Amino acid sequence: MDLMTALQILDSTVRLGTPLLLACLAGLYSERAGIFDIGLEGKMLMAAFFSGAVAFVTGSVWLGLIAGIAGAMSLAVVHGLASITFRGNQLISGVAINFLASGLTVLIGQKWFALGGRTPALSGEGRFQPIVLPFADSLRDVPVIGPVYYELISGHTALVYVAFAAVPISWWLLFRTRFGLRLRAVGENPAAVDTAGISVTRLRYAAVAIAGLLTGIAGAYLATGLSAGFVKEMTAGRGFIALAALIFAKWRPVPALGATMLFGLLEAVANRYQNIDLGGVVIPVQAMQALPYVLTVIILAGFVGKAIPPRAGGEPYVKER
Amino acid sequence: MPVMTHLLGAAATLALTAGGALADPALIFDLGGKFDKSFNEAAFNGAQRWKAETGGSYKELEMQSEAQREQALRRLAETGANPIVMTGFAFGDVLNTIAPDYPDTKFAIIDAVVDQPNVRSVVFHEEQGSYLVGMMAAMASKTGTVGFVGGMDIPLIRKFACGYVQGAKAANPEVKVIQNMTGTTPAAWADPVKGGELAKAQIAQGADVIYAAAGSTGLGVLQAATDEGILSIGVDSNQNHLHPGKVLTSMIKRVDISVYEAFTAGAALETGMIAMDLAKDGVGYALDEHNAALVTPEMKAAVDAAAARIVAGEVTVHDYMTDNTCPVN
């Protein structure tokens, strides 16, 4: 394998890993605050639909992004209401959100565009265009660094850089600020936070809203960055893979980057080579596709360290019993 | 006595026709959805044509999940719809168990063979149409490498791939064909993001014409091919208009004709197996104003000659589904 091939695969890894990374960070905020979120898939789908639809109608991808975030945010509010205010079961609320998004996107899309839930194809300003970073062209001929910079680091859409920037920001926010400390505390021991006179409800809503924001960006990236429009069920299980990555990363931001990029790499390799021939032993492509889930099970079984979820995760907080 | 038989026969036919006039035909779309710009949409167009010409009405149902199939069929049969046409191989097993329960209802299934007395099975010779577009791909390619992106990895899609490779090799024995399948679950029909990535991976390996047989995943393939400035080939419906001047051609599968014929026959639908091949214009390649500039006269002449030889039986395109192997790859 030459450098060019490796770079192409890594480039594809970044594209495929970015929606996973954003969704994974969304899940991280939510679950660190004690709200399990299996509705990542649904929120991404909703965001993908609204970003695709609004970007087509207005011709502006930025308005599309805002609409996508608003779409995901509205479902996040539903999840918040169900699991924080009304103390419902968070898993059931998440499942409901997935079903709701799956049906609602197609219903609204059919009513709006009469294309069977698809949105019309986007072009030009309606899509995120690749950004060529400064000096990318002039550095192109420098050995090794040039191609790496030109092929791998430059030439992605704005949202990819946003996603990568979100990793150190999340780390700083969660581990170096007062808000982050409280947010993590509310997922471990909400009663202690409450005793300190801080509103558990408000913190949890904040976490759920951040999750809505990030899934909104993830969905918009799928519909307006990677493809040119929304197609029904286009998230294709990425929200669930992101949850697996979250467990894999043990609910920490920097490992989340590693886990999602690993999963992206596995998919990119599977896309590039259907069957991998390792000196007589042929690894079928299905094995590669299953690997993210297999790795997650191995992690969960405790073979590689231990994945301990936030202690108060999944339990609604009741002030007094 | 023969006169008597004739009269009785005529009366029976009349009764059947009368019954047919009362019962509306029904059409069930598979998971890809009615407006997939491809397979199911072709079926929809056939039904719409029947509606426009006869002024009749029909029932339709779109599958939302695998589990609905049996219930949907039973419900339609019980409401008296006749005939009931369904698109997609996935209905095969379900129909096989249900058909005997409704002996008076006629069923037509597209893309699968169900051996029941009241079922018409329509199968297409996609390998022949794919062979033709494979030839065009190999002739249009400048790099000598062409690509294929399939949807869910099932024998039917392998059949498309196998015909395509045979055609490409026939036009240029040196051609390299890169094949990818999107996945192994029904989600593989609706993942344009992955389709686009597969197309980009194939382009990186030198492919400059890519054939997508993958439902709405194929829309992502066509988009990526257009973005990267190479040609693509659509499938099932004529997809040339999606990216004018960028889609070399489309492998057309006349699902619309099958649906139209079944609806027109009504309750008197003849059962048994119907093979839609090149000779019956059941498959073919699309040529319209959107790709006229891409298809050179030599290309057209070569493909039309090959089509004539397939129809005449001089060239046999291997059907993957007969033995689950492909002679070339």
From TrEMBL, chain A:
The UniProt record lists the keyword Transmembrane helix: yes
Q: Which GO terms describe its molecular function?
A: transmembrane transporter activity
Record's signal peptide: none
The transmembrane segments are: 12-29, 49-79, 91-113, 158-175, 205-228, 240-266, 278-304
Q: Which UniProt keywords apply?
A: Cell membrane, Membrane, Transmembrane, Transmembrane helix
Pfam families hit by this protein: BPD_transp_2
Q: How would you describe this protein's topology in the membrane? A: Multi-pass membrane protein
- Per the record, the domain of life is Bacteria
What GO CC terms are in its UniProt record? Answer: plasma membrane
Q: Where in the cell is it found?
A: Cell membrane
Q: Which InterPro entries match?
A: ABC_transp_permease (IPR001851)
* Protein's recorded name: Sugar ABC transporter permease
Task: Supply the source organism for this entry.
Answer: Phaeovulum veldkampii DSM 11550
UniProtKB/TrEMBL annotation, chain B:
- SUPFAM superfamilies given for it? Periplasmic binding protein-like I
- Read off the Gene3D superfamilies from this record: 3.40.50.2300
Domain of life (superkingdom): Bacteria
**Localization in the cell:** Cell membrane
Keywords assigned by UniProt, alphabetized: Cell membrane, Lipoprotein, Membrane, Signal
The keyword Signal appears for this protein: yes
Its chief place of residence is membrane
- Is Transmembrane tagged as a keyword? no
- Membrane topology of the entry: Lipid-anchor
* Entry's Gene Ontology cellular component terms: plasma membrane
Which residues does UniProt assign to the signal peptide? Answer: 1-23
InterPro entries (alphabetical): BMP_lipoprotein, Peripla_BP_I, PnrA-like
Domain ABC transporter substrate-binding protein PnrA-like intervals: 30-296
Family recorded in the similarity comment: Belongs to the BMP lipoprotein family.
Provide the protein name.
BMP family ABC transporter substrate-binding protein
